[in-house]
Amino acid sequence: MIKFTDVCVKFDGRPVLKDFTMEVPTGETLVILGGSGGGKTTMLRLILGLLHPDSGSILVDGQEIVGLPERDMVPIRARMAMVFQGSALFDSLSVRENVGYRLYEEGALSDSAIERLVVLSLCFVGLEDTLEKMPAELSGGMKKRVAIARALACSPKLVLYDEPTAGLDPINAHLISELIRRLQKEQHLTQVVVTHDLDTAYRVADRLIMVHRGEKLFDGTVDMLKTADDPRIRTFLSPQEVLAAPGCFPAKDGGIRVVTPTMDEESPA
């Protein structure tokens, strides 16, 4: 469904993605792992057509979107939905209005049809009793679930998630992960999940890609990732082991560096 070929992106001359290639088959949940600033969120913006690469090709459902006029991106984006890191709910709108917002804006369905989709979507995430609540009345986990309901209400074929469990306690993080799994199994959706949370990644991924400084370090299954021997991957997966020795710090290349403190061994006069 999605194919990147030799995609390069630079911001102010600084490489963000370097000759990046990946594929996301229809119906797969791909997790993109990596540290902050590694280019993960940039990939989501590229898929949405909100950012154009400096070079390379991006296909969505077999259609090249690089250089595509904005008007031609509209029907492609109509098949996508985005779940933002901060949920991005409208504070002045009720849960019902938030979930149905895109449908009301598109104006293609009757109010009764939209209401049915809103209720069904909220039922899926277990929040059908929150229709009249305002975002300020919801917990962080509930807001994320409402954001997923809003995405689901639009009947997308592709859902993109930017750090869906960031800032959540373990119980709510588990709930969000289970919802992502259910969406794939029951709705057969294609999903791309950007995260640095390993628990979430391990729970939801059919396949993982690990990105470091704009380059792809790894592409494979959870089991393959856990046994990878690249020191940069080991540092990301097990920092408590790799950086346990005094004076060990992450290096810019993703490895480690050891700093030896210099002490004046002579006693003061």
Distance between the termini: 73 Å
* Strand adjacency order, main sheet: 6-7-8-3-9-10
Average pLDDT number: 89
The total count of helices amounts to 10
Computed CA radius of gyration, to the nearest angstrom: 21 Å
CATH class: Alpha Beta
Q: Which range does the strand content fall in?
A: 15-25%
For the report, how would you describe the main beta sheet?
6 strands, mixed
SS class: alpha/beta
Question: How many strand units?
Answer: 12
Quote the CATH topology: Rossmann fold
CATH architecture: 3-Layer(aba) Sandwich
Counting structural domains, the number is: 1
> N-to-C SSE series?
EEEHEEHEHHHEHEHEEHHHEE
CATH homologous group name: P-loop containing nucleotide triphosphate hydrolases
Describe this protein's structure.
It is a single chain. By secondary structure, the chain is α/β, with parallel strands linked by helices. Helix 4 (111-124) crosses helix 5 (140-153). The longest helix is centred in the middle third of the chain and has 18 residues, at 170-187. Helices cover 36% and strands 25% of the residues. The strands form 3 sheets. The protein has a 6-stranded mixed sheet, with helices on both faces. The protein has a 4-stranded antiparallel sheet with strand order 2-1-4-5, with helices on one face. Residues 265-269 have low confidence and may be disordered. A hairpin with a 5-residue loop joins strand 11 and strand 12 (256-258). The protein is globular and about 65 Å long. The chain has 10 helices and 12 strands. The protein has a single domain, classed as P-loop containing nucleotide triphosphate hydrolases (Rossmann fold), CATH 3.40.50.
